[in-house]
Fold this sequence. Notes:
Strand order of the largest sheet: 1-2-3-6-5
Radius of gyration: 13 Å
Oligomer: single chain
Order of helices and strands: EEEEHEEEHE
Number of helices: 2
Largest sheet: 5 strands, mixed, barrel
Number of strands: 8
Distance between the termini: 37 Å
Amino acid sequence: MVYASNNMKDMPRPELDGSNFTGECYKVIDGDTIYVSGLGKVRFVGVNTPERGEEGYYEAKNYVKERCLGKMVTIDVDDAKHFDKYNRTLGVVYVDDSNLNQELLEKNLAEIMYIPPSEFNPYSWAV
């Protein structure tokens, strides 16, 4: 299902228990935020990419677009904290069985951003 509205209040939220959720990535906001059908806005946990206007913004965003836009992705929802203060689902994004959060770090398109509590340790992803 693709949502017509970008307003989170209009999107039904599934009950999350920290398990995996699979859906189509139908919109890329930036290098660490995407929309997934049936789930809504997803924030990549443990990483931070440049914001609009900052160096590297388009490189990170375009990489994420290339890797997941229009594809089925699996979100490993953070068991310790399902949502951030903006009500985005927090998780690790897998596409083609690869950890996209980790790829962003490996390609120097993101920095580690560890905010406890989190079940994930992004320092273990850094090379």
